[in-house]
Amino acid sequence: MVFGELGRGCHGKVKLCLDTITGEKWAIKIVEKTAKRRFQSKLSAAARAAAEGGLNPPNPHLERIKREIAILKKCAHPHVVRLREVIDDPHSDKIYLVLEYLEGGDIAWSNNAEHPKPIQSVDEARRIFRDVVCGVQYLHYQGIVHRDIKPANLLWTADHRVKISDFGVSVFVDDDTLEADELELAKTAGSPAFFAPELCAIVSQQKLPLLGAPIDIWAMGITLFCFVFGKVPFMAETEYSLFNVIVKDPLVIPDEPHITDDLRNLFHRLLEKE
């Protein structure tokens, strides 16, 4: 039984469902097997060549969905969202991912866009961050880079634990099947305000330093900053300007009495630029 929609994004929509036999609630992520028209320009050269030759072209969008499923199937950790099953009807143009429902939703971190103030206390931010560290450490041990760590992808459980969700742009770090177009996508996957400097500065690279664990570490630093100060540390009017700011501007930590030297040092270590 479907109750309603929990959210949606460029990688699909999520609906709340009830198992009428067990009484359990589940979140079902629904994704299209074919990329929407506005993403068709990202088809690889191999796909375009196959189409022009009358062959069935490879489907990079579908491959990314399969990779997300493979990553979720590999994960079993208290701080990573759990996949129950996958429903893939060959006669349907959609794939359904049945995920555990986390009723606490995503973690709020600011209540005023013009004059941001944190919602979480420093102690609560520290506890959230500890759970995120445990989850990300597990992912990296499994050879997985999340690529989109941010507050919106961190969900509360009923007993107030934090779980990492949304693996739509995640990759296996040793995946040698990524095509050049996938590597190009890696430069723009995720949320710009959480991009690491090496992503912002890249003009043309062919291999995976940009897919490594440091991307997640940087995003964790930005996320912690959001929880402590209610805003991101680097801001600009345009995406291009934002990338320049992230690469060139120094980290400025607000001088507030509740910010200890240890916390200040942690920010500088997480958000260290080469």
Automatic annotation (TrEMBL):
Binding residues for ATP: 29
Gene3D superfamilies per UniProt: Transferase(Phosphotransferase) domain 1
GO BP term, pick one: signal transduction
Pfam family, one: Pkinase
Keywords: ATP-binding, Nucleotide-binding
Keyword Cytoplasm set for record: no
SUPFAM superfamilies given in the database record: Protein kinase-like (PK-like)
Domain Protein kinase: start-end pairs: 1-274
MF GO annotations: ATP binding; protein serine/threonine kinase activity
Protein name, entry field: Protein kinase domain-containing protein
Source organism per UniProt: Batrachochytrium dendrobatidis (strain JAM81 / FGSC 10211)
Native organism taxonomy: Eukaryota, Fungi, Fungi incertae sedis, Chytridiomycota, Chytridiomycota incertae sedis
